[in-house]
């Protein structure tokens, strides 16, 4: 391979490594890396900057921005807080049931809207319950860690839940219904395995006597803190109706109309925001996640440069050339995808590996490869606290809550505290991804 073909992947690798090591500068690092890729490909004649920008999947950015604004409108409607309180009351305040209720709830919410927004509104309710109830480090670590993994699985369950699935949908790799019918059961199985292992094998609450009085007090405090919070029908109703209309359009609109997923989202979100008038205008002006958009734009430019250099094609040919049967090559690819995602996070992992996965579809069914890849990316994003955006956010919220154990010592939640949860989750979800790929290609 010529030197000019090696420069873009070298820049991409160095950029991804640097943004993982220095997360507080990740946006500037990625944008600088993208500019360096444009310069390198222009000087060496691989591709012009205009060509790289033309390769950017703008539909992905449109869907991410649109769904983000919809999530902001739902947040303004104060929908998630009261639902979290009801889940807490239904669980009776028991730690095991709390973990099940909140994990299942976040799984569902993360499949429909931005899980970051939902986490900001739901996690404080759970933290109040832990602070006034069982705030032992082991309980806190496994409860919050399981909640984060449930968010990742919920995002992988639907074509609009998270970046990897949105990328598949917007690129036309899979249709909305095809992905949903395949990925949803697999992620439900993975979540059930995780909750079962935590509840039956790990048992974070073992050795602690049940205290009904403490549980009732914890629920009473939580309910009192949120007694004045009620959902606002004004923002919630158009958001729910708009999201429902978009889901129907994604499912039933015929391909011959050439109305793609991005256009459906664009029109649907604009109509919902117009219904809200000034509130919709304010959200559109102030609540767009510019950081995420610029980060992904820089990432897409670098991936386009690597693709134009022919590296993905060469890597795909290498995998196809492995002395293994097709299903064995797929297992190697899925395992590699999980590990790389854990190191570099879901966005870079999926954007780069999808191009390699397309090579495997020459000899294996596309849905098996793509859904297996999405699950492997989910496994990788659950491996380390830094592999998904929700991890550092949860860490900050826990530190801000100032949880303390029975002896008054502060309870921390960071990289090392999440690691046991991440290792177990990675093994289970990656196992489901490989099993799915093997079972659907028999």
Features of this protein?
442 residues, single chain, globular, mainly alpha
Summarize the structure.
The protein is mainly α and 442 residues long.
| String of helices and strands | HHHHHHHHHHHHHHHHHHHHH
**Mean model confidence by pLDDT:** 84
Measured as a percent range, the helix fraction is over 70%
Q: Over the alpha carbons, how many angstroms does the gyration radius reach?
A: 22 Å
Separate helix tally = 21
Which percent range describes the beta-strand content? under 5%
Gross morphology = globular
Helix-strand category: mainly alpha
Number of strands: 0
Largest sheet: none
State the domain count. Answer: 1
* Distance between the first and last residues' Cα: 36 Å
| Low-pLDDT regions | none
Any overview of this molecule?
77% of the residues lie in helices and 0% in strands. The chain contains 21 helices and no strands. The mean pLDDT is 84. With 442 residues, it is mainly alpha-helical. It has one domain (3-439).
Describe the SSE topology.
Elements: H1 3-21, H2 26-44, H3 49-54, H4 58-76, H5 80-91, H6 95-110, H7 115-132, H8 137-157, H9 163-170, H10 176-202, H11 212-225, H12 233-252, H13 261-275, H14 278-286, H15 290-308, H16 311-320, H17 326-344, H18 346-360, H19 366-381, H20 390-401, H21 415-439
Helix pairs in contact: 1-2, 1-15, 2-15, 4-9, 4-12, 4-13, 5-6, 5-7, 6-7, 6-8, 7-8, 7-11, 7-20, 8-10, 8-19, 8-21, 9-18, 10-19, 10-21, 12-13, 13-14, 15-18, 16-18, 17-18, 17-19, 17-21, 18-19, 19-21
